[in-house]
Design brief:
Elements (H helix, E strand, L loop, with lengths): L2 H60 L3 H19 L1 H8 L1 H23 L5 H77 L14 H59 L6 H29 L7 E3 L1 H18 L2 E7 L6 E3 L1 H19 L3 E9 L5 E8 L28 H11 L3 E7 L3 E9 L4
Helix pairs in contact: 1-2, 1-3, 1-5, 2-4, 3-4, 4-5, 5-6, 6-7, 8-9, 9-10
């Protein structure tokens, strides 16, 4: 069932409870109003009956025959009142109560008539009149009292039922809201987990049981998107491999062509002018050939390091100690190039797992690039500090050199890309990039022409 339908169903259920509660409240209110009307009538009737009893008592005390006429008038008034309000009496007290009330009033009237026709006072008839009046009065009072009690019971019961209904509606709303919110949260967490895994390159589908609601449709769409992204990623990776292969081939060809041409040219000169060359000149030519051969070997070595980086031998180490050792290695180069250095090493940094030699290789490469960008003279800053998230350590290498043009920055870690012309091979930063990635870290660069360049290495504190 869709979430929309669940919400509609829960709303219908709550509205039905509210309607039933309202109907019950209206019915009870009508019953209470009926009882109130009856009690008003009963109070008027009791007042008339009380006046009759007073007139009756005056008759017996003073023997005034006019009191009997007064009682007769009040009986007629009470009878008329009963007949006028008979429907209300029936609704409130029932037909039986109305019948008894009429019967007692009739009996009282007949007894009064019998007393009135006797010229001489008869003790027996007077006793019958007292008894009939008392019975009528007591029945009316009892009926009124019972109806008051019933009305109070109805009000108390209605109050309880309304209270129970309120809590039932309240609990139903909370339970339904909790159920729907939990359903939404579970689906949202699954979607969040899925999108996070996609952002990290994991294109596995959500295999949990999926409902047939809106979130089920969303999860199906995300699974479809994940599958499509997986296919697209394979295509992109393949195209990147082909592009990298083209760049690599072009770079290798370019880097090897220059020393090979030099060797070829020197070999031709050596052959052509061998007889006219002196011993020192021959040795000089061969020394140049050897130098070009060493250059080729260096290119091949860097190429192998780039294509097949060595597995990092991770051991617990102190980053600051690694930086200090590296500075000792390059201190002579810094002194010769008249470079001022400043260290900003963070205190109480946690030990992390790294390959000390590989990280030194990266730092030496970055420092060498900085020296070449500044020489002669300049300021080099090397620092360490905790990462922004607290789960990494950052190493900063900052120079005051000529900087890198913005259009070159996106390609700075590409193989065989160099801003040094024939001086560099274009593999140093690529190899460094691979080393840092093998450490599950990251390396970033910021640069402004004429201001300087800053490389930031981020290494994780824990092993991943």
């Amino acid at each position: 069932m869709k979430i929309e339908h669940k919400i509609i169903l829960s709303n219908v259920f709550n509205v039905a409870l509210i309607l039933l509660t309202g109907i019950f409240a209206i019915q009870n209110m009508n019953t209470v109003l009926t009882k109130l009307r009856f009690i008003e009538i009963a109070d008027d009737l009791n007042e008339s009956l009380l006046e009759m009893r007073i007139s009756e008592k005056n008759y017996f005390l003073y023997g005034n025959a006019g009191m009997l006429l007064d009682i007769d008038e009040k009986i007629k008034t009470a009878g008329a009142l009963i007949e006028t309000a008979k429907n209300d009496i029936v609704r409130a007290a029932g037909a039986g109560s109305l019948s008894k009330l009429r019967s007692y009033l009739k009996e009282y009237a007949e007894t009064l008539d019998m007393v009135s026709r006797r010229p001489v006072r008869d003790i027996r008839n007077e006793t019958m009149l007292r008894t009939a009046g008392k019975t009528l009065r007591e029945y009316s009072q009892t009926m009124t009292r019972l109806e008051r009690e019933r009305m109070n019971d109805i009000i108390a019961r209605a109050k309880k039922i309304l209270l129970y209904s309120f809590w039932a509606i309240f609990a139903s709303a909370i339970l339904v809201s909790h159920f729907i919110s939990q359903k939404i949260l579970v689906s949202l967490r699954a979607i969040e987990k899925m999108t996070m895994s996609i952002s990290k390159g994991d294109f596995r589908k959500i295999e949990e049981s999926r409902s047939k609601d809106e979130f089920g449709s969303v999860i199906n769409a995300i699974n479809f998107m994940s599958e499509e992204l997986s296919h697209r990623e394979e295509e992109i990776i393949q195209s990147k491999k082909l592009a990298s292969l083209g760049i690599l081939t072009a770079g290798v060809a370019h880097e090897l062509t220059n020393p090979l041409n030099n060797i070829s040219m020197m070999a031709q000169n050596f052959t052509e002018y061998y007889d006219s060359l002196g011993r020192e000149e021959r040795i000089g030519l061969m020394t140049k050939v050897e130098g070009e051969t060493v250059r080729i070997q260096e290119i091949v070595k860097n190429l192998l390091d780039f294509s097949k980086p060595k597995e990092a031998n991770l051991k617990e180490a102190d980053v600051n100690a690694v930086i200090i050792k590296t500075m000792k290695l390059v201190q002579n180069m810094l002194d010769v190039s008249n470079i001022n250095t400043k260290l900003g090493l963070g205190e109480n940094l946690p030990a992390i797992y790294l390959d000390e030699h590989q990280i030194q290789q990266v730092l030496v490469n970055l420092i060498t690039n900085a020296v070449q960008a500044m020489s002669p003279g300049g300021m080099l800053f090397i620092g360490s500090r905790p990462g922004k998230q607290g789960d990494s350590i950052e190493i900063t290498v900052k120079d005051s050199g000529r900087g890198i043009s913005p259009e070159f920055l996106p390609h700075i870690f590409d193989p065989f890309f160099s801003t040094k012309g024939d001086v560099g091979t274009g593999l140093g930063l690529s190899v460094s990039y691979g080393i840092i990635k093998n450490h599950k870290g990251d390396i970033r660069v910021e640069s402004k022409p004429g201001v300087g360049t800053t490389f930031t290495i981020e290494l994780p504190v824990k092993r991943r």
